Amino acid sequence: MKAKSHFALSQIKEAKECLDQSLQFKPTSPAYYLKSNLLYQEVIFIETINIVILPQKKFNEALGCCDNALAIVPDVETKCKALFNKASIFWRQGLYEHSIVNSSLSLEADPNQYSCWLIKANALNRLDRHEEAIVCYNRVISIKDNIAICWYNKGKQASTKK
User: The whole model's pTM is what?
Assistant: First the structure.
């Protein structure tokens, strides 16, 4: 897809234009998920290089695209990715309960998503729900055992256990 190629080349504006064009022709297309993913990746990129604090409008636009993607009754993979994006966006906004709800919904569809278990564990961590966080960190490790931050956070949770 042309939008994916533009995004791979860090041509964010061009990628968005392609997705918007696609959605004009077919508003029920999977382009909503792709656009939500693009917006989510843009959020990550901007935060990583510390250029600006992303306005709420960007988060809302990304969440809206996720909701549109989910409304189309997507395949399991697209559903999981859209819910994961929502969970990640909510986590970045400090809305940890919403993050947990969306990661849980994604994990119901596919329980083998280590990144989704990790975002859920981190949200639980922020809410001081240490026992539940450790369970999630254990799930990450059972799926993919080389995630250093998972081992670190699990150890940190174990040391704060009461």
Answer: 0.68
